Amino acid sequence: MKSAVISIVLSFITLIAFAQGGNVVQFSGIVLTADSLQTIPYAGVYVKESRKGTISNTTGFFSLAAEKGDTIIFSVVGMEKKIFVIPDTLKDSKYNIIQLMSTDTINLPTTVIYPWPTPEKLEKHFLALDLPDDDYERARKNLKREEMAELGFYTPNDGTDNFRYEMNQIAAKGYYAGQYPPMQILNPFAWAQFFKAWKRGDFKKKSYY
User: Which of 68, 153, 205, 209 is deepest in the core (most CB within 10 A)?
Assistant: First the structure.
């Protein structure tokens, strides 16, 4: 009696194993991008019911054991998830597909970051902001006519100016050689230049320190 029961149980287990074995499918394929048909490595491929699966290799190829009627989930970071259901009417134990993945665009809400907690404080600091001068502003300040004129007035002559002045004096002496130079005391133009130089302060003592 016991041996008959054991035989029935073993037969029942064998039938179940055989039935389950008939549903097993070698599910294989390749994962590609939908826009450029580039292979996608390390894409997740798993069975929804059992949460068992695999990942695609560096060439996008994958292969796993599943059953007829299983729901297969394809997931890749930055792309939309894809779902594929293995047909339960398959007569073969192998099934191959090419799975295309599309880019998943996520629009985030606009975020405004303020360096100050309130708009009033932002306005206060903005109005008190002292921006440094740019190259143009610095050049404009350094090349003011008044400052350039004052700088030229108090700057002593260099070697070139002294040489030119000496040459002019020698030329003037040579021009009047053998005769008396004209008396400028009766020249009205000379007096006009004298008064202009007096007003400018040309005869004041200059200090360069």
Answer: 68
Q: Is residue 48 part of a domain?
A: yes
Cα separation, 49 vs 51, whole angstroms: 6
Q: How far is Cα 155 from Cα 160, in angstroms, rounded to an integer?
A: 14
The total of structural domains in the chain comes to 2
In terms of domains, do 128 and 96 share one? no
In a domain, 202, yes or no: no
Question: Can you give the pTM of this predicted structure?
Answer: 0.44
Phi, psi dihedral angles at 46 (to 5 degrees) = -145, 160
3-state SS assignment for residue 88: coil
User: Residues 33, 58: one domain?
Assistant: yes
**For residue 19, pLDDT beyond 60:** no
**What is the pLDDT at residue 178?**
72
Torsion from C-alpha of 50, 51, 52, 56, nearest 10 degrees: 140
Q: Which amino acid makes up residue 196?
A: K
Contacts of residues 53-61 at CB distance under 8 Å and 24 or more positions apart, as own/partner, are 56/30, 56/31, 59/30, 60/30, 60/31, 60/32, 61/28, 61/29, 61/30
